[in-house]
Amino acid sequence: MEQQLEKALNEINSQPDTVGCLITNRQGLCLGAAGKINPKMSGIGMALSEQACKLEPNLNPPTIVLYSGNKRCIIQKDGEITGVIYKESSSN
Amino acid sequence: MEKFANQIGFLVLKDDGAVLESGGELENDERSANIFLDLINLTESVDENFMPNSSCERISIVYEDHSYNICMSNRRIYIVKLRNGSANSRMGGLGVSSNSSVYVDANEGNMSSTGAALLT
Asked: Per the database entry, which stretches of residues form a coiled coil (chain A) (predicted)?
C-alpha cells in the first residue's frame, strides 16, 4: 500500500542537493521518510506549517524555508499532509 | 528601515516580541508579530543534527504572490514582506514560479542579497 509513497519519497531524495525528506499527516505522525532525516522531525515540521498558515488563513499554505549556511529545510503543506525536505548545497 | 523596490511591509521586533518599528501592510500588526515569534521559537526545535540550535539565520515564508522574510540580528527580529513578480525579480527581488522548490533554488542568490541587506 505504501509502495507509491516510498517511490515518491525516493524520487524526491534523488534530486540534486537533497539530503532527506519525509511526509507527515495532520497529527504530525511520520508517514514515510527517505535519506538522512530524523523521522521525529515530522512533528516540528507539521507545527511550523500550521503556524505559518495562521498568517494568512485564507490563502493556500505557503512554502517555508529555513536557511542555515549551505543547508535548507523546506516545508510545504498540501491538504492533509505536509512534506519536509532537507537540502544541503555543496557550493555556497 | 531601508526599502526594497518590491517591499510592501516590514516589522522590527525585540527578541521578546515587542514591536519596535513597523510599516506598510505590517504596520502595528501585532497579530502577525506574535505568529512570527512562535514560528521562530519552533525553529529552535529543528533537528539538532541537521541545523544546530539557533543556527537558523533566515526564514522565508513564500506565498504565491508575496513572501515574508525573517532575519535575526543583534537581538532584533527583522521581517520584510515582499511582493513576488517577474518585473521585480529583474530588479533583484523575489521571482515567482509555479514550482516552489525550483523557485527556492533559482532565487537563492537574490534571497542571499536580501538577507545581507537586511543585516546592514
From this structure: none
Helix, strand, coil share of chain B (percent; to 5):
30, 30, 40
CATH 1.20.1250.20 is the classification of domain B7-83: no
Cβ burial of A24 (10 Å; 0-12, 13-18, 19+) is buried
From A24's Cα to the closest Cα of chain B, the distance in A is: 15
**Single-letter residue type at A5:** L
Whether A75 and chain B come into contact, CB under 8 Å, resolves to no
Using the predicted structure, report yes or no on whether residue B56 has a pLDDT greater than 70. Answer: yes
Task: Give the Cα separation of B59 and A27 in Å (integer).
Answer: 23
In chain B, the residue whose alpha carbon lies closest to the alpha carbon of A59 is: B63
Q: Which cell goes with B16?
A: 521578546
pLDDT of A62 over the 60 cut: yes
What are A73-89's pLDDT values in tens digits? 999 999 999 999 999 99
